[in-house]
Structures are given as structure tokens and as C-alpha cells.
């Protein structure tokens, strides 16, 4: 009966996919990823061909949409089918590799970055790394141009790395200073009749405050502002280096924020304001002669039947094997949870430990970069992953590279006594511990539900859905939290070669920017994945030309779920409601608080969490 019901539910879900969407998707599959296309070689007179061969070559790079450090292996996120969209994140490191290839290409003299897309988004750590790759073009004596229309901070920070910035006369420039947004659920919980019981260490564990306070505490607000200044200064320094402006000038520009094209040119933010749609003509004028344009080419759309489409979706992508000496980039992404089965957007300890062990036994993998993008999670799951990394590091060179966030449990897993790289804008630290239980007694009473428990003692119902912790239970839970916190301090002190007192002074749940963390001794160097790869390759004695592989292979949606058992309920829970869709577009994914709610009502023994502040958005 369960199997029949599951199949029926899945068939109903498939019927939601309109014929138009399937056709649209089939067409989408016909487009190739952005190759470094050569100029068209159609039949031309010999004289014309020779003349064109002498022209300088300009490569166009169009940046749009979001970029993931390590996107899903599937060609298409199947959730977009169910939700009526076709959005697919690009591969950030593929983009960086393509730029490096251009820097080595002697036939390519100029590069134009088209930054006109309003959907372009990178996180701050990616932004720093991309700017360094653009500077590689300039160091290779390639002239770089940027084209802006309606630009924000992300667009402009990329443009500032280029030699020349062109802006349309119909555009606008919006350059606000960075800000932090967080969600607080306390008042909504009160309306629903929900209550949070908690135990924590330190006054700066911002992951607890959204459930216990209606607004941010003064001490946490002050600490966040200090961190924000550090991150904003790092962003300004990045722009200053490209535009030859002082940090003071740019802070004034940020306070003014909005600029017309002419005002932007007057403030020396752009080099020229030109008519809309004339980017190519003006690049030609600046170069001073005719050019050959090279841009990504699309293949002809290929019609796919519905069954071919489903085969592509369900088959995933093959894993790229190491067939010569290689460095593996191990992606540690998402909230860290205990378990034996992979889950979307989560770092599950069992499968990850298995992936780490496979790297340890692969003779072609000579070194590993552990790339962390995680707010933390379960203490036990974090320790399982950390111990596996420690065993790996005992056998092969290993370097840690922090992405946009490596905090709390994400910092715990970095403590293997090996070099740690972070970007200046990385969120890290958050050395703190908490336990949280949500109870819904008043809500259940409002809707006429009474929970009756028959127990042998009070502690048997400590995790019941209808009540918070009793004083004795609160005291015991605080003891567990204090014990894990003490272990956290000792782990950091040992890994970072600091005294316990030094770690304690910067712990207490405080989140730091990468620049702050380096000064405090929590990270070794400021840099990105490229720096970490170079360092670990040197340690392994690898010659240039070594292979880089990415692990573990990310399974697609259909591989992650068994569609013919009870797990189809998880497919339902994965679908975004309108409210969740709106919050996600605003930057709030809600995966962390929703997982905390799920754990709270599971009725199992309470987990101890190493989590950074939930749903923090910096823009």
C-alpha cells in the first residue's frame, strides 16, 4: 500500500510539469556550456581572411545569474521543473579556470566583461577571488573592459578590477555600504504558542537569539557592526586598488549611494558614459582599430523526448577520475548533520566520512584542499568529519580553504593542525555551543489538542512537544553544553597553537570576518582556493600541470530520494511554498531554523549544536 501511494504521489507531481515547461527544458539541454569559441571560419576571400587574422581579438565574457562553488552534478535542478523555472547556478571555479586560460592564450589580446545582467550575484568571498583572476589577465598584458548598465556593488566591484569601465547613459549605479539582516522568530512563536528552552555558552551565540528575543541584543549588534566595518573595509580596499581612489573617498561615495551615469563619471567611478547598446563600438574606438570578436557560441537546440529528458535528470553526471597526480578539492558545504544518507543542502556525516576515506586510499590523489562553506551543525557530526580529515592529513598534504562561511561546527572541522586560508570577507569563528528545544503546548491548547503522557519519571517526557525543560533538566543540559564548549576551546587552542585563555577571550560565540580572524590567529593567511591549491601542490612536490578534481560527486535530486518508499514525503517537504520562495529571493534560505524545529519535535535525545547565527544575510 505504501509503495502504491508513493508512486501515485510521484505521478501526480509529474503531472504538474506543463508540456510547455518540458519543451522549454528540452530546448535548454541543447545549449552547450560556455566554450572558448573560435571565430567563425566560413568561406571568405584570402585577402579578407588575412586582414582579419591581423586584427586584435576581443573575448566577451557575459556574467549573469548565481555562481556556486560546486554546483550539482545534474545538468538541471529538477526542482525548477516542479516550480516552473529553469534557473541553474553556474560553476564559479569553472569560470575562474576559463579566465586563467585566457590569461595564457597569446592569441587573445583583450577581454570585455559584460556586467549588464540584473541577476548577477556572487558572495563576497567569490568576489575577492574573481577579482584576483581578472588581475591575472592584466598581469598577462591583456586589456580588460567592463560594461555596466544598472549596476550594484557586485557588478561594480568586478568592474573595478578591469582597466576601463564603460557605462550606458541610461543606467544607474547603486553603491551602498554593507549591511547585515537577520530574522527573529520570537514574536511569531508567541503568536503561535511556541516556546524555546535553551542552554548556551557566551553572550554572542547569535543562533539562539532569533528564538529567544524579539530583536537583536545590544552586545551582539555592537559586535556585528565591528565585524561589518572590517568586511566593508576589505571590499573598499579591493575597489580602491582598481580605481586609484582612497578609502575615505569611497566611504563618502557609499553614503551618497545612488549615482547617475554622469555623476559616476564625475566621481571617477567610470571612465566613459556612452549610448545604450554601443559597448562594442566604443571598445573598438578605445583599441584604435578593427577587432575580431569572440564570444560563447550556442549549439543548435536539440529536441528531447520526455523519456530522454527524464533519463538525463535521473542519470546524474559521471565522476571525473584522477588519471594522473592530482589535487582533490573536497567540498564541505551546508549545515552539518548526523546520518547515513545524503540530503540536499546538508553536509551529512556518514557519506562525507566515506568520501574522505576514499580520497585517503586513492593513490593518484597526492594532496587535498578542504573547501568549507558551512555554518556548522551537530557537534557529533562535526567531530566525525574532523576526525576523518585528521586521518587524511596524517597521510597526505592538506590545506583548509574557507569560502563565504566556515563558522562554529564549520570552524570545528578546520581544526586539524593544518594551514587555513580564508578571504577577508569570510564569516568564521563562532566558537560557541548551544542546545535548543522548541515546545508548542499553548498552540496545541488553542487548537483543542491535549497531549497526555504516561511516564515512570519526569525526565522521560523532557523532549515532549508540549512542554519546556524543567529546572533540573535545564541544569543538566547546561552541563552538557559547558562540557562540549570546554572541548571546543581545547581543540582550537591545540590546532592553532594558542593558550586556552587566548581562545576563550575571542570565543563565546563571536563571529569574525576573515580579516579579523587572521589578526586573532584563527586563520593563517588571507587568500582563496587558488592560493590553497598552489600551497598544497608545493607541499606535495607536484609539477605544474597536475590535475584538479572535485569531490564528492554531488548526486542529483532523483538519486538522493528513493521515489518508491516513504521518503517521497521528504520530496513534498522540499518544495518551496510562496513564503519560503519570497524569503529565499531575499537571501533567507530557512534551512537551518527549519532543521532545528524538526530536531526539536523529533522526541529524540537533544542534540548539542555548533551553529553560527541562523540566516544571516550580508549585502
Number of helices: 26
Mean pLDDT across all amino acids: 80
The level-1 CATH class of the largest domain:
Alpha Beta
Globally, the shape reads globular
Helix/strand structural class: alpha/beta
Q: Largest sheet, described in full?
A: 8 strands, mixed
N-C termini distance: 49 Å
> What fold name goes in the CATH topology slot of the largest domain?
2-enoyl-CoA Hydratase, Chain A, domain 1
Number of domains: 2
Model regions low in confidence, pLDDT < 50 over at least 5 residues? 9-44, 74-86, 562-577
Bin the strand percentage: 15-25%
Oligomer: single chain
Rg: 26 Å
Instruction: State the fourth-level CATH superfamily of the largest domain.
Output: 2-enoyl-CoA Hydratase, Chain A, domain 1
What's the architecture of the largest domain in CATH terms?
Alpha-Beta Complex
Tally of DSSP β-strands: 25
What helical percentage do the residues reach?
Answer: 40-55%
Explain the overall architecture.
It is a single chain. The chain is of the alpha/beta class. It folds into 2 domains: 2-40 and 53-175 and 257-294, 2-enoyl-CoA Hydratase, Chain A, domain 1, CATH 3.90.226.10; 318-618, Alpha-Beta Complex (2-enoyl-CoA Hydratase, Chain A, domain 1). The chain contains 26 helices and 25 strands. The strands form 7 sheets. Strands 12, 15, 17, 18, 19, 21, 22 and 23 form an 8-stranded mixed β-sheet that branches. Strands 1, 4, 5, 6, 9, 10 and 11 form a 7-stranded mixed β-sheet that branches. The chain has a two-stranded parallel sheet with strand order 2-3. Helix 5 runs parallel beside helix 6, helix 6 (124-139) packs parallel to helix 7 and helix 19 (471-496) packs across helix 20 (500-506). The longest helix is centred in the middle third of the chain and has 26 residues, at 218-243. The radius of gyration is 26 Å and the shape is globular. Residues 9-44, 74-86 and 562-577 have low confidence and may be disordered.
Amino acid at each position: 500500500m505504501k509503495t502504491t501511494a508513493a508512486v501515485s504521489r510521484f505521478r501526480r507531481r509529474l503531472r504538474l510539469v506543463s508540456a510547455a515547461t518540458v519543451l522549454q527544458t528540452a530546448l535548454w539541454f541543447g545549449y552547450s556550456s560556455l566554450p572558448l569559441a573560435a571565430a567563425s571560419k566560413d568561406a571568405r576571400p584570402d585577402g579578407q581572411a588575412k586582414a582579419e587574422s591581423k586584427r586584435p581579438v576581443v573575448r566577451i565574457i557575459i556574467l549573469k545569474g548565481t555562481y556556486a562553488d560546486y554546483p550539482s552534478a545534474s545538468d538541471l535542478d529538477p526542482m525548477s521543473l516542479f516550480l516552473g523555472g529553469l534557473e541553474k547556478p553556474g560553476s564559479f571555479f569553472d569560470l575562474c579556470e576559463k579566465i586563467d586560460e585566457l590569461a595564457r592564450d597569446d592569441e587573445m589580446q583583450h577581454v570585455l566583461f559584460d556586467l549588464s545582467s540584473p541577476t548577477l550575484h556572487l558572495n563576497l568571498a567569490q568576489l575577492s577571488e574573481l577579482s584576483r583572476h581578472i588581475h591575472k589577465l592584466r598581469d598577462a598584458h591583456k586589456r580588460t573592459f567592463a560594461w555596466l548598465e544598472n549596476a550594484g556593488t557586485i557588478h561594480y566591484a568586478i568592474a573595478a578590477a578591469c582597466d576601463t569601465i564603460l557605462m550606458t547613459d541610461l543606467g544607474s549605479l547603486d553603491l551602498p555600504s554593507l549591511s547585515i539582516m537577520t530574522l527573529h522568530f520570537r514574536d511569531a512563536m508567541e503568536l503561535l504558542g511556541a516556546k524555546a528552552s535553551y542552554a548556551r555558552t557566551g553572550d554572542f551565540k547569535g543562533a539562539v537569539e532569533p528564538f529567544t528575543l524579539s530583536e537583536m541584543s545590544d552586545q551582539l549588534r555592537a559586535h556585528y557592526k565591528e565585524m561589518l566595518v572590517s568586511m566593508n573595509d576589505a571590499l573598499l580596499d579591493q575597489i580602491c586598488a582598481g580605481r586609484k581612489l582612497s578609502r575615505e573617498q569611497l566611504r563618502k561615495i557609499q553614503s551618497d549611494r545612488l549615482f547617475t551615469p554622469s555623476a559616476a563619471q564625475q566621481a571617477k567611478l567610470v571612465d566613459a558614459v556612452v549610448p545604450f547598446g554601443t559597448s562594442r563600438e566604443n571598445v573598438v574606438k578605445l583599441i584604435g582599430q578593427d577587432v575580431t570578436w569572440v564570444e560563447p557560441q550556442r549549439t543548435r537546440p536539440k529536441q528531447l523526448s520526455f523519456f530522454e529528458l527524464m533519463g538525463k535528470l535521473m542519470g546524474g553526471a559521471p565522476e571525473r577520475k584522477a588519471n594522473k597526480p592530482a589535487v582533490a578539492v573536497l567540498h564541505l558545504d551546508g549545515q552539518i548533520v548526523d546520518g547515513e544518507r545524503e540530503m540536499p543542502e546538508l553536509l551529512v556525516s556518514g557519506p562525507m566520512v566515506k568520501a574522505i576515506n576514499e580520497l585517503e586510499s586513492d593513490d593518484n590523489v597526492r594532496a587535498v584542499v578542504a573547501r568549507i562553506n558551512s555554518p556548522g551543525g551537530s557537534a557529533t557530526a562535526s567531530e566525525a568529519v574532523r576526525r576523518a580529515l585528521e586521518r587524511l592529513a596524517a597521510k597526505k598534504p592538506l590545506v583548509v580553504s574557507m569560502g563565504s562561511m566556515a563558522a562554529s561546527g564549520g570552524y570545528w572541522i578546520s581544526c586539524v593542525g593544518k594551514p587555513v586560508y580564508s578571504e577577508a570577507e569570510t564569516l568564521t569563528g563562532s566558537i560557541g555551543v548551544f542546545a535548543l528545544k522548541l515546545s508548542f503546548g499553548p498552540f496545541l491548547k488553542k487548537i483543542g489538542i491535549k497531549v497526555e503522557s504516561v511516564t515512570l519519571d519526569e525526565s522521560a517526557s523532557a523532549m515532549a512537544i508540549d512542554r519546556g525543560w524543567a529546572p533540573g533538566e535545564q541544569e543538566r543540559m547546561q552541563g552538557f553544553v559547558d562540557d562540549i564548549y570546554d572541548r571546543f576551546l581545547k581543540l582550537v587552542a591545540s590546532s592553532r597553537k594558542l593558550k586556552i585563555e587566548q581562545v576563550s577571550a575571542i570565543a563565546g560565540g563571536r563571529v569574525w570576518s576573515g580579516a579579523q580572524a587572521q589578526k586573532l590567529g584563527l586563520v593563517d593567511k588571507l587568500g582563496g582556493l587558488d592560493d590553497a591549491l598552489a600551497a598544497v601542490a608545493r607541499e606535495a612536490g607536484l609539477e605544474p600541470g597536475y590535475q584538479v578534481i572535485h569531490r564528492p560527486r554531488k548526486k542529483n535530486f532523483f538519486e538522493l530520494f528513493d521515489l518508491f518508499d516513504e521518503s517521497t514525503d521528504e520530496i513534498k517537504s522540499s518544495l518551496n511554498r510562496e513564503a519560503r520562495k519570497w524569503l529565499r529571493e531575499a537571501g533567507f534560505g530557512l534551512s537551518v531554523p527549519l532543521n532545528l524545529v524538526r530536531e526539536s519535535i523529533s522526541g529524540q535525545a537533544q542534540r548539542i549544536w555548533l551553529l553560527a547565527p541562523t540566516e544571516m544575510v550580508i549585502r
